Structures are given as C-alpha cells and as structure tokens.
Queue: 2 jobs
Job 1
Amino acid sequence: MKKITVCYFAMFRERAGVASETLELDADTAMDVFVQTRSRHGSDEPAGHCKVAVNDVMADWDSGVDDGDTVLLFPPVAGG
Amino acid sequence: MFAIAKDDIAVDELREKLKDPAAGGYCVFEGWVRNENEGHEVERLEYEVYEPLAISEGEKVLNEALQKYPYRKVYCVHRSGALEIGDCAVWVAVAAAHRDEAFKACRYIIDQIKIRLPIWKKEHYTDGNSGWVNCERCANVLHLPSEQNGKDG
C-alpha cells in the first residue's frame, strides 16, 4: 500500500466534498488512483475525458505513482 | 507571456505590449461570455483555474505556436472567478512579420488552451440551475483500455 495525496478539482471536488485527502492505495499508476477513488470523485466520467498530474507535472494515465506522491485529478476541462 | 487574471482583462493596455517595429500583422481573439449554451439561458459563469499548471501548460502552448508559426510577440490572458454576460473570458494576441503566421498562431493557441489547460467553467442559468461545462472535443475521447485494466483496489 502507498500513501497517496489525491487532489480533486471542480465537479470532482464538489462530489468528493473535499479538495484533497491522503489515502492508502494499492496503486501502481495514475489510472489505478483514478479507478480506486471513483466512489469519491464520481464514476460517470471516463478517464479519457479527464487529465491527471503527478506532483504538479502533467502526466499520462499510465504514469507510475510512488509512496508520498500527490496525484491531481482533473475533470474534463473547459477553458476559453 | 501567459497569465491568469482575477479581474477584467485590460485589453487596451495589453495591446501596447504587442507593438513591434518588425511586425506587419497583428491578430487578436477575444472569447466572450455568451448568454446561451445548449438551449440553456446563461446568467453568469465562474471559471475555476489551477494556476500553477494552467500557467506552465499555457506557456508550453505559446512556445509550440512559436515553433510552428514564428511570431514576434504573443500575449495570452485567461480569466478566473466570476464573469457576467459579455465579459472577456480569454484574450489571445499575436504580432508577426506577416498576417499568415499571426492568424495561424492565434488559432493554434486558442484551440490548445481550450482542450489542455486545467480550467473549468461553471454556468449559472436563469432558471436557477447551474452546471459544469464539458469541453466538446474532450467528449469525443473514448474510454482508455487501461481504464478497464486499472487496479480497482
């Protein structure tokens, strides 16, 4: 198990009820974190619509995550 | 330069920053808050921006545009916070030697900003409802294969 701090934004934050939380997860990749926190951020958005960053760097869904990492889960963006 | 503005974008002041004696073409795009979206009458909206990554990703987009369509000067500002109908939500300006680079760089920048930057729009409708807006191009992306394979804990 790894201690991962997960940050939620926009609709994910509203659904989770918190902006961030530190969880014990059995996660190897950013995708694992997304899947394992679905009940927190809401399950109706496929990952392909969303984006992820690890330790404040934009990442891919197959990017690795380590103990102590911060994973930022971004719902579908809508700038402009 | 890419920036996030918490208040009105100072368009007239910003325009002065683009002036360059070697520039023969100046192209600007302003995105405004519209009073309607997908059949809903919009009253106002809010932008949520994750600034550290919006700025770094925004700068990346400007550099990509420079490689593709060499320009002299560029400036892009995106709003955060509460906006009313008619407000300027995003401002992209490019000065280049010729109009072709200016038009193309401006188009590239606004298109990439809409789909890549961690910025979210919440619309408030006249009927009292509100909702987060999904980027129409992101919605075309299918489920990723790894999503089914991801460890579900």
Job 2
Amino acid sequence: MIYAVFAPLLFAVLIPFLSRWKEKVHTGWLILPVPFLIFLYFLQFVGPNFEPQVQSVQWIPSLDISLSFHLDGLSLLFALLISGIGTLVVLYSIYYLNHKEQLGHFYTYLYIFMTAMLGVVLSDNVFALYAFWEFTSISSFLLIGYWHYRERSRYGALKSMLITVLGGFSLLAGIILLTIVTGTTSIREMVAQADVIVDSHYFPFILAFLLLGAFTKSAQFPFHIWLPDAMEAPTPVSAYLHSATMVKAGIYLMARFSPILAGDPNFFFLLSLFGIVTLVWGSFMAVRQTDLKGILAYSTISQLGMIMAMLGFGTDVALFAAVFHILNHATFKGSLFMVAGIVDHETGTRDIRKLGGLMTFMPISFTLAIFGTFSMAGVPLPFLNGFYSKEMFFDATLVNSASGPFMEALVAALPVLAVIGSIFTFVYSMYLFFGTFTGKYKEEELPQTPHEAPKMMLLPPFILILGVITIGLFPEMFNQGLITHAADAVFGAENNQDIYFWHGLVPAFYMSVAVVVLGITLYLTKSKWEGIYSVLPGRLSFNRVYDWLIEKIETGSNKVTTSYMTGSLRFYMVLTLTAIFAITLGVLIQTNGVNFEVTDVAPITTKELIVAAIMAIAAIATIFVHNRIAIILIVGVIGYGLAILFVFYRAPDLALTQLIVETVTVVLFMLCFYHLPNLQKSTTPLLTKGVNVAISVGFGLLLMVIGVSAYNSRAFDSIADYYIENADPLAGGYNMVNVILVDFRGIDTLFEVAVLFGAALAIIAMIKLRRDKGAK
Amino acid sequence: MEIIMTGLASILFGAGIYNLLQKQLLRIVVGTVLVSHGAHLYFLTMAQLKRGAPPLVVDGVTEYADPLPQALVLTAIVIAFGVTSFLLVLAYRTYTLNKTDNMEELRGSDHE
Amino acid sequence: MNNLIFLPIVLPLIASVIAAFFPKKLNLSRKFAQITSVILTIMTAALTWHVLTNGTIVVQSGGWEAPFGISIVGDGLSMILVMTTYIIGTAAVFYAPSVLDKQQESFYFYAFFFLLISGVSGAFMTGDLFNLFVFFEVLLIASYGLIVLGNGKVQLRESMKYVLFNVFSSMLFVTAIAFIYAITGTVNFAQLAERVEYVEQAGILTTVAIILFFVFAVKAAIFPLYYWLPNSYVVPNAVVSALFGALLTKVGIYSILRVFTLIFVHDTGVTHQIFIWLAMFTMLFGVIGALSTNNVKLIITYNIIPAVGFMLMGIGLYTEDAIAGSVYYLMHDMVIKGALFFLIGALIVAAGTKDLREMSGVIQKFPLLGWIFFVASLILAGVPPFSGFIGKILLLRGGLEQEEFLLVIIALISSLLILFSMMRIFIRGFWGDLMDNISDDRKRVRNLTIPGVVLVSISIFLGVGAEAVYPHVESIANMLMDRTDYISSVLKE
C-alpha cells in the first residue's frame, strides 16, 4: 500500500529526467501506467468480503508520527476515485495539453497531488494526514497557477492557497487538541475514545477547528469563493482536483471523524446548516454563470454542500446516500468537466453566450453531455445514477429530529431548502446542456470552427459516462462491493441500504416531481427572473470581502508599519524606553519589589558629597550647554569625577583605567567633532521636550528605586572572599583585581581585547574605505 | 553613601537618556558616555562601598573591598571605551557622508 | 578531551587575527576562510556529537572551580546552536565572494566574520552572566564592523541607529548585572540558579529579571523593541544580512531561553505571562511589517520578527513540549533565515532590483532559484514535513495544553500571513512574464543559489529526518525544565 501511495511522488521526481524524450513522446504516455496500476491494485480489494487493511511504517516515533495506512471501505472508495479518475485525467490531458507546454511541470504537480491525496484518505495517523492535506493545497496552488503568465491564474492560485491553508492550519489545531485529549495520534484509536472526546471541555474547539478545515477545503459557504477562481487551472485539473477529488478531502475528513463528532448535536446543526446553505447558494449562483466551467464550479460547490449536509444528518440513510453521491458526483461531474474542456478546446471559448447548436458538430460530446447533465439534474430515469442518490437525499432530509428552537427550525426547513436547491440544480443543468448544444449556432462569435474531438480525448469522459449508466442500471453491484463498506466505515456500524429506483409514492418521490416540474418552468422563464441577481448577491459577494481583505491587508499593514517605522532615532528610542519603563514599573508594583529598609550603608563623607554634587551638576549641565568644546570638557569632568570616586571607594586600578580612558576619549571627541557643526540651541517644540524630560526623569527615578531596593535586598554574601583568600596563595598575585582579570576570569579579558581589536579594525575600515561617495 | 551614589548614577543615566533623545550626533554620543558612566557607578555601588582596604594583599589586613566588581567594571570600562571610539568615528563618517549631524534629517524614507 | 570545548570559541578568534594580516590578498583570504570554516564545522560537529551522546561538558577556565572562574558549558542546547552557527557560517563564507565587491571583501570581511562567529559561539556556551556580556560585545563589535562595510551613505545612517540601540542596551545589561550582583552576590549561571530560590525579596529580583529580559529583547527584536532591526538589516550586503538574520537575533532569544529556564523561574506567573503577551504582539506586528512593503529584502527581514515571537511563545508557555518546540524552532529558524537571505540576495542579483513591482518571471530564467525559494517559503510557514512543522506542532501543543487559545490562533494566523508575504514574492517576482531587466549572469546567480540549496536541504532533513534530531531536542528540553543537571555539572556538587 505504501508503494501505491508513494509511486506517483517517485515519478514526480523522475519526470524532469524523462523530459529528454519529450520531443518524441508526450510525457503523459510515459507515466500513464502509474495511476492505472494503482487503480488495479486497489480494485483487487473490491468485493462483498472486503476486510480493512493496515500497513504501518515508522517515521518520527518520538513524536508519535508514523506513516500508517488504513484501508477501510471509505478509504477504498476514495482511493479508487483518485487513481481511477487520475488515469482518465492523464489520458485526457495528453490530448488537451500541447506538446510545447511545460509538461514536465504539469505532471510533476499532478503526481505530487496524487500521492498527497492518496495519503490523505489512507493515513491513520493524524499528523501524516495533515502533512498530505497541506500538500494537496500546495499542488493545487501550483496547478491553478500553471499558466502563471496569466493574471487571473495567479489571482486564483493565491486565493485558493490562502483559504485552504487557513483551513489546514485550523485543522492542525484541531488534531493537536485531539491528540491532547486522547493521547494517541491514530484515528482508529480516537474513534474508540469518541465519548472521551465529546465529553472533554476542549470539544467545542475541536469541532470548530476541524469544521473550519473541512469547510474551506470542500468549498462550503462562505469559503466557496476560491473554487470558481480555481477554474483558471487547465481543465484536466479542474476535472480531477476541483471536482472529483481534492475538494472532497473536506468531505472525507468529516466522514472520517463523524463517528467521533456526531455524538454532539452541534455537529448535526452546523454541518446541516452550512451544507444546505451551500447547496442552495451554489446552485442558485450556478444559474447565473456564463462560463461553462463557472457553472460547473458552482455546481460542484452546491453538490459538495449536499454531501456535507447529509454527513451532518448522520442517519444511516443519509450517510449511505452521502457516500453513494460521492461516487456518483465524481462520475458525472468529471465527465462534464471533460466535455466542457473539449468544447473549449474545439471552439476556443467557454462562454455559453457565444456557444449554441454544437449538437451537429460534436455529436459524441453531445451524447455524453446528455447523460452527464441529466444525471446531475436528478432526472428520474433508471440509467442515471444521480437520481438515486438525490432521491435518498430527499428521504434523508425528512427523517431528522432535534430539540431546541434553532434545531427544530432547521429540521423543518431542510426539505424545503433541499427542494429549492435541487430546482436550481435542474435549471443550470438544463441551461448548460441546451445552451451549449442546441439553439442557434453563432459562427461569427467562435474563435475556431468547431469539430469533434479526437477519439482518444473522448474516451475518458465516455468511460465516466459508462460508469454513470452502469451504476444507474446495476446499483446493487456497486453497493455490495464498495458502497456499503464505505457507509459502514462512516456510520461506525453495519449500514446496509438497498438501492432501488422505484420507492413508491413516498414524499421523496413528490419532491422529485416538484423539482422536475418547477425546474422546467423556471428554466423556460429564466430570462424573466434573471434580474434577481442584481439584488442577490448584488454587491454582497464574499469575493468582494476577500478582495477587500487582501487589499486592506496590504495597504493597512503598510499604513500601520509606516506609522511607527518612521526612521527617527528619537521616536524609536522614545517608544523603546517607554515600553521598558512601563512594563518594568508594572512588574515592580505587582511583585511589590520596592524595598526601602535601608540597612548596612557606608557613612557619608563631605569630600565624596562634593565630588558627587559636581558630577551631578555637570551631568545636568550637558543638557544646557551649547558649545561643543564646553560639552566635551564637561564630559571630561564627569569622567574624572568618576575616577576620583573610584579612588575613594578603594578601587585604585579602576581609577587609573578610568583616568586614561577618559583622557583618550576626550581627545578623540575633540578630533572627531572639531569638524562638525557647533551645537545649536534646540528649537524643539515644548511637547517633545516635555516627553524627553518625562522619560529621562522617569527612567532615572525607576532605576534609582530599583537600585536602592536591590541594594537593600542583599540576600547572600558575595563570592568575593574566595578571591581575597586565594589571590596570593593560589594565583600568586598581590593585586586581587589584576589576578581576577588575568587569571580567574582570564576569558573576559581575552575577549575584551578582542573587542578592542574589532573596534580598531572597524575604525580602519571606516576611515580607509571610501567607496561610493554620494551614490548608493 | 550607597544611596547617594545610586542617586548620582541615576542622574547620570537620566541625563544620558535626555541627551540620547536629542537630534545632534554629538549630544547623542555624549549621552551614551553618560549612560555608561552611570552603569559603571551602579556596579561598584551595588557591591557595597568602602568595606575594607583596597584589594591589594597586605600582610595583616583581613578586610578588603570586594575585588570582583572592580575587575568586572574594569573590563566594562575598557569595552565601553572601544565601542565609544568606534561610535565617534562612525558619527564623524556619517556626518561627512550625509552632510548633516541631525539625526532627524537622517530618517530615510526608503521604507517601502 | 574536555578542554576541546574551548575550540569553537577560541579558534575563530585566532582565525580572525590571522585573517586581519592579509586582507588584500583576496584569493588567499578566501581559501583560508573557507578551509578554516569547513575544518571548524567538522570539529564542532564531532564535539556536538560527543556532548549529545556522553552528556554535558563543563570546563572551568584556567582550572578555577565554579563559581569563581568562568564556566564554559557545552550542554546539548549550546552545542547544537554552535554547530548550526558554524554550518551557516560556512555557507556564508562560500557565498561571500560572489556577492561582495572586492573592496568590501578586502576591508576585513573575513576578520569580522570570524570574530562574529567567535562571539556568537561564546555567547551560546558561556555559563557566566558577565562573560555573556563580554561575548555580546564581541559579536556586536564584529557586527558593527560588518554593517558599515562599504561605507554607503544610507548604510552609515542606519548603522548609527543600530549601534546606538545596542550600546544603550549593553549599558542596561551592565546595570542589570550590577543589580543582580547586589541581590545574589554572584554572576555564575549555576550559582545564580541555586541562589534565586532563596531570595526573600523576590519582587525586586523579578523586576531586575525583567530588565535583563528587555536587554535580551532588544537584541532578539521582540515587540516593542525591534525598531532598529528592519532597516539596519536591509542596508548591508546580502551575506551580512544573512549572518545577522540567522545569528544575531537568535543569540538574544537563546539568552532569554537560557536565563528564564535556568535562573529566573521563581515567579513564572509574572515573567512568563508577560512573554506570552509580548509573543502575540511580536508575531502580529512582525508579520504586518512583512506585508507592508515591496522591498523583497525587507520582507524577509520583517519575517525574522514573527519567528522570534514563536520562540518566545514557547518560553512563555514553559512546558516541556513548548520548550522543546522553541529549541527546535530556534535551530530551524537559524537555518532557514540564513537560506532565505542567501536566496533573496540571489534574487536581487538575478532580477536587478529589490522592488517587487519591478520584477517578474524570474523563474523562467532561474528555475532552481525559484523552486528552492518556493520550498524555503513553505518551510518558513511551517508546512509539513519540513523543519518548521516539528517546532510548530510542539509549540501549538504547548499552547493548547495551557489553554492559551488566543495565542494559538494568533500563531496560526501569523503563519498564514507569513506564507502570504512569501507567496507575494513568489507570485509577483518569480511567476509572470519574463522581464527585460533580468540578469544574464547565470554563473553568478548559480553560485549565489547553491549555499541556499544546501541550507534548505538541511532544513528539509530537520523535518523529514526529525527522528534523528528530535530525541536530542527532547532531552535538551527535559534538561532545561529540570535544572539540576546543569547546576550540578557546573558546581560539581
């Protein structure tokens, strides 16, 4: 199984090396067998006697992250879809993409995606699942941006990445919470602890984080906005990622976790609500689109909403129908995307307003489209699989029960909304089909003269349509071999439903009839009520919210940042000092650190006081002096004063050093500032001055308080005695300070010299290197 | 006495900060010098003042001033000297290249 | 054997002095620097391996027992950081010749470089607060030398601000050490750790600890103390920016990590709670900065800040998971920041501009650069299975365990915005139509790309091969949380 998952990735890496043959053979042919073999591999598990398979490889055991794959019914269904449709899409793309394009890139991205998607549906380890999940987003980003010289492609790629990665990060938070609560990273073990999870006080967060992950990925309202823009990707990609597989990852996630989450009524409420709203909104918006792929994109959104809602219902019928519809949707939507791509390829446009009457030019495509659209519309015919699952969906909307006013209102509204959504689905399906293939042929509007596509290009949609019909005619065959196993996995118990065409005169039947009748009416009168779209959504689209947000993020962040990154040293200093001052003061007060109990101080003597007073006055004088020579001399006075204090305080070495250093410093000051302009009387505004004074005084006072408190809080004797006792006997020196410097703490001194060395080099470099005067 | 010295160090610190907040390069550099004086004085004061003889071993004397802070401050003084000299030259070069000693005119508008 | 632990600190100092003797002989300087750094890297790797398998090595300088001499402590944390430093340094030495002009190179670039490495390694390994100050000064003076290298007008202007900020925070450092000495009577880490528990006036100690935190926070570029960073990292040469971005702020965050896990853990309710708040703002404002500009180098520079926020978050949470996360993230961030600055330097050469609005389609001519940059962006945003992911899982787990939901959500949002800021560069600069001003010097761009490729590969290994690394990080975190190992190995009690 692990080989099956990683084979595409392996080939993705190899593809760049295959490109040497690309002159002779289309790269697609070389790698076509990969997904097909994977498909065959998974096909062998299909059958009534399917047993789940497990295979595990250690990856980072110390973090409990492993590549453990668990193939149950649900995973099997998805794995078959991924590899099966993958095969068809590669075949299709061989004819869709021109030899001259950068095919290597295309197939590399596509195969990375294939591995990622297989990994998502097979991983039992939540972190591995998450890793694969992010890679589906990334490969989708690269595929949408495949024609990156197009502005719209770049826009769509970024949008899809931001929204799906947002969801991915949210999912990450959710699964980390799950691991915290359960102490395991295996989904199967989590399912076993479902009640622990639901009872945990983390549960609301878990639910919210996981839902956000699933909703963004599966394009649920209001996060659906990325999907229409993702249609900038080449059509094979749209058929594959953005209809059959990747967008179903969110569905998969919910299905996978539903045995855990469904224990909570909020799960029902949120999933049903968002799902049904997405269904209605998606189908409603689809009618309005003029781009073939746009219609299909909104249709996908709507269908995903329907599946999501069914997962929310959580009843056995609903879950069964959800799984069944995943399969059905993949078949008819995949084929429709491919047909749309063929139409685009052969006529040069996807604008339905320019299309029409293609029936005679493209009879095979036309036939395929009939089956696809009618199945999507849920037309009650026994050879269309779409009808079966839709009928079950109607059934499922009728049997929910819940308590609480909101929940009851939702339960009551579900069937109505389901019918409304389905009516619009019917309308856009008809519009898509008739608008393209019947009506007036507008030759002058088409960039190319249409003709039927090559046979091999028609083969993939044909196979899918064959699937539509086979499932329609022999649903039980698929049921026993595949669907029921998947439904079992989602339901968490035996979930055996019969699929049959005629249910009798049950409510679901009347709902279907209503959909068809009202759908036809609305389709025929479409031009009359289209005005509604200027009101709804009108200006209120979430696209605008996204665009606004992106723009605000860029301009807003620029505004915020330039507002404080002014380049003014003083301003930075003010901000920094204020922050340090405020927080330190806060801590001082909160911890009650002030300690004014003066103990054990040296006596005060007059000579020290005089020196101290001179220094204090000098220090303050620096502020008021405006002569550069004077200020340098005053600095000198302070330095020498310090040296004298060192003498008083029994530190002869310090005094000596200070004396020398101060002298050199003053000379340096003189040298450097001789050429600089004289000091000017400051003309700063009063407020600025006030701030400066407040900060300096405040900071000085704060340090004073802290210093005194620290002094008074002496808790230990210094380690000094050791030096005093051992300087002579152990280190052989009489001057303890010197001994400490050169011996006890020799490293300090070594690197002190290193600092001087560095400073000297830097000064030399600054003076000697005069490269670009003016410029730069 | 320690309290007074702490006060003096705080005054040096405060005056230094005030100078740091000015526009002209010279004042700013003076500010850093004052601040470093303040810091050194804090260090010596914090280790208690005038306890015992200067830390030079003399027979018969048992009480000495704490030699460790003195050694550390000495290191700090030398380092501060190195940095200050660098700063002075940097200030000089900045002035000669940019033709101004006013930091407010040295904001730079290339944020963007 | 134990004394070898000095070598990563002392040998580069010697190398620095040697390099200062023949700055004008460029070929010789380059060869000397390259060979020396490769040898030193191998040696450090061997030492690190030794420490990780056999436990902490402590050497008392001059043989004076702690706390009287200076202890150099090679524990797991210090050693892996020193090793990472050397790896990045070596990459930088190979990168430098293609990006520096000859004059810059000949004015002691290599001498400053080795001095910087020496200071950084020393700061990572010292076990003494005052000695930490000295090593800070060493690395700062080297960084001053590097930042003014070239003497551009703008360069000096921004250097001035950089230097002043650092001088001020150094002085505050001395003051904080003075206060700590007053209360505890020592500057040795291990002894401080022992004594802090018994201080009766804990309030003032906490206050002083916060001052010390701010000293480190200025260097680490934590909100609201990072104003000096963006422009001063943009103006110097790309290789200098890479060294700064990868090493300097990390020394600050390392110091916070060390001091606030070993010493000042007596009142985490106050100190570490402040860290959590500051971490949130650091992440947010940093990433806002990254989105605010079209200067590609500035985008990368701003991205330093949220990463620091992530690490601070782990320290603030102060659980074993979170600390392990911070350590992992620290390693990861050093490597990836180095890589990104290298790559962005290559991009600027390739595109001939720093302005995102004036570049487009670079990937068509330089596919390797484009794809490596893309992968590096994903790594930076913490996408699995790369190195950023491992740290992120741990940090988020720590945050969620402590029920800091706001913190976690902000961390996730800033990750997303980091990705956005990087994708802006990728989409606008690399994708799109090929512009005319794109460089034709393929050889130079290739030389500039390769060091980035190497670092990105290491970063990928740190993620995919986490099993080889994480157990060590876990035991490091374990040791940081349980301080006895450090204390007893230094004080030998």
